[in-house]
Specification:
The chain is α+β, with helices and mostly antiparallel strands and 163 residues long. It has one domain: PAS domain (Beta-Lactamase). 23% of the residues lie in helices and 28% in strands. The chain contains 3 helices and 7 strands; from the N terminus they run ββαββααβββ. Strands 1-2-5-6-7-3-4 form a 7-stranded antiparallel β-sheet, with helices on both faces. Strand 6 and strand 7 form a beta hairpin.
Length: 163
Amino acid sequence: MKPEDREDGEGFFRDLGLNFRNPELLEFLAYWIAKRGARQFPARADILPREIIHLLPWVQMYDVIEGGKEFQIRLEGTALSKLIGSKTLCGKPLSTLPAGVFKRMQTALNWVLEARAPIRTDAAQTTIPGQERYGIEACFAPLSDNGSDINIIIAVSILEKHK
């Protein structure tokens, strides 16, 4: 593990080198970079759902409240909401998620705020209740409506069945 990478002590890793295994995550990162252009971060308005339609079931967005003191679920993809077993968590605080999922999501969102850049997360086992047979790889990326303050974090998370 490189010094800039992190592990939460429970098998959840941050990779700032963005060494994705999943081609959809590489595609999402390329999309984010294209939308950013010469700026530090793209804005929410730059992200057009019709341009990433095949990724939407796996997309999540989180509002950053008071610089990261709290996070609110802005959007959750249908594939993820089905796995969690909820109709919708949109508009609810991050703490509404199941405990293990909440802890990892809060960690990942804080890692993005710390890095001020996209990050890759990886875990051999998801914390989604009933889905322990899957690993999970994700790309979390910051968005900013004013060009400097991160006010939304967008993520794409892909479950991977253990072989």
